[in-house]
Amino acid sequence: MYTLKKTASTTKARLGELKTAHGTIETPIFMPVGTLGTVKGVSQDTLADQIKAQIILGNTYHLYLRPGCDIIKEAGGLHKFMKWDLPILTDSGGYQIFSLSDNRELDEEGAHFQSHIDGSRHTFTPENVVETQRILGSDIMMLLDECPPYPSSYDYAKNSMELTHRWAKRGRKAFLEMKPLYGHEQAQFGIVQGGTYKDLRIESSKFMADQDFEGIAIGGLSVGEPIDMMYEFTDLNTDYLPKEKARYLMGVGTPANLLEGVARGVDMFDCVMPTRNARNGTIFTRNGRVNIRNAQWKEHHDYLDPDFPSDLCSKYTMAYIHHLIRNNEIFGMVLASIHNLTFYLWLMEEVRKRIADDTFGEWYPGMVERLENRI
Amino acid sequence: MYTLKKTASTTKARLGELKTAHGTIETPIFMPVGTLGTVKGVSQDTLADQIKAQIILGNTYHLYLRPGCDIIKEAGGLHKFMKWDLPILTDSGGYQIFSLSDNRELDEEGAHFQSHIDGSRHTFTPENVVETQRILGSDIMMLLDECPPYPSSYDYAKNSMELTHRWAKRGRKAFLEMKPLYGHEQAQFGIVQGGTYKDLRIESSKFMADQDFEGIAIGGLSVGEPIDMMYEFTDLNTDYLPKEKARYLMGVGTPANLLEGVARGVDMFDCVMPTRNARNGTIFTRNGRVNIRNAQWKEHHDYLDPDFPSDLCSKYTMAYIHHLIRNNEIFGMVLASIHNLTFYLWLMEEVRKRIADDTFGEWYPGMVERLENRI
Description:
Two copies of one chain form a homodimer.
Chain A: E1 2-7, E2 14-20, E3 23-27, E4 29-32, H1 44-51, E5 56-58, H2 60-75, H3 78-82, E6 88-90, H4 94-100, E7 104-106, E8 111-114, E9 121-124, H5 126-136, E10 140-142, H6 154-177, E11 187-192, H7 198-210, E12 215-218, H8 227-239, E13 246-249, H9 255-263, E14 268-271, H10 273-280, E15 282-285, E16 288-291, H11 311-314, H12 318-326, H13 330-356, H14 360-371
Parallel strand pairs in A: 4-14, 5-6, 6-10, 10-11, 11-12, 12-13, 13-14
Antiparallel strand pairs in A: 1-2, 2-3, 7-8, 8-9, 15-16
């Protein structure tokens, strides 16, 4: 599924291609998150044509609860339901069960939880999340895992990792036994866990490397640990992951985090940050981060970045955007969401160019510094 | 400013053109409401290119409070602030003072009120609303009036109307004395009041007809009175309004209301209904009104109206739109807002065609019936 095209000479950055049933993705790539079958505030046309998203994410936990599997199955899968013809990756719901549901319990069988919507009771097992993702029809599905909180004791992290490994075997078996529903192939990614313990992280990387998953995700990071620790473990994990498979760092992150992840050999990223922060007025630019709600922008009748191809940057003034966001106008949230995603995808395109001409290693530290500015 | 091109043979419907500094408007027309310098949920590009809005509304009361006159003046007027090159009409704020502000008092000088945002105290006078609208730079500005509540006693309605008439003279004087700020001409419309009393309505129509306003609005209707009473007074008012000036029925209404208004000689309409109701899931179509939140749409995997040119009707299924709106997804609100406005503007285009070929009189009663269906 993954083809490694080039490795940078001074970092672990990789240029590659990921073939899916709905098209080929150039990596490194950022995947906008479309929790409920919509990337919040952005139309599918804008995502494809303007933002140039190559793949988006859907959340199994959320889609399972709303609209529910019956509706998506009747529609012929998530692609048809939401009219999105490019690749989709779905998570397994594991992370949401632990972060959203009020009342959850874990045992060997799976995760038992109460819906955060109506309190109804459900169980996700390694097998039925495969079944659900067959119904969703995503191009890439994820295993059910347990994401241990940070910090976790060594014993907790070890037991949790071992459970995730046993679930991985069950999930893969189910994947091989259950056929796709809509005539297109799906891939399945394993997920490395192990908390913040080196030996566990190495053990989990090796374990996942030994299975026949089509790609491997690095899970359990970006959950509250210090940023250097996230970089350290990402670096450690990719050392033990096979070169011929795509690596996906789940739930990461800021633009600077993406560059640091790429430098450590990551190919795929997803995060709600560009859209969630947009709605609150945080704008990511190539010169740093802007809080458009700040009073300094109230009378700023200029453009934020006249050469950047987004309406927020080069069509409307900062004073206008400030006014929209301060007044919670939908159009302000939409402009900011489109901009932030356009910026994330632009950044990844820059990254790919820099790896291709082998200037990534010298370019990215300065770029990280710029990206971390507060304007 | 207004050119009457044709009058229907069996109704009072009129086909006309309204020339403004930012372009010529074909009438009858519906004006989308852009309260705070944005038509809620819709981009300016979509408004112009897809919805085919010819003129939009801005609210003086809201823009005066947020972002404030200083900001708009620095930007060079509302057109430049919001990047909208087509005509803009601004109301005077009179209606909002009475419907929104917590604490208001009226005297001969003007309307004293507390901001609904921060409780600060302000006064609108017939003169200073002209000044504010010179700053906004709208193509058409409105007089300050008092909109009496329904029901009002005869004495209240009479005194209120007489005050509105005295304010009209002061407002016109101010308009003639204060020059435009940005090099383009602005027009000023008078507003007929008189509550729900025939003699007052006639008196107010005659009074406004005798002034030299560029157009005349029918105010004080659609404020809670029975619908037949609104039609009756609209009909009465237009009998006394000059044929050579545009007539604008303020704050109206449903698609059926628009047709009934056109039949009674109205040229211009505005209302928040298409966007406000869209956000709650009410969709207007040529076959009637749909509440997309209803459970009947949950598993309806078909299009609402495959031949109607909006994404809501012909790109996404009802089940998907239902899912978006039920989950308060921004994209659902955006799709519904764009659709409803596209529908309103489409309807007015149909109206103009029907007046042009003189089939309006036979067509509109059946269409009103269809539009009032609940699907």
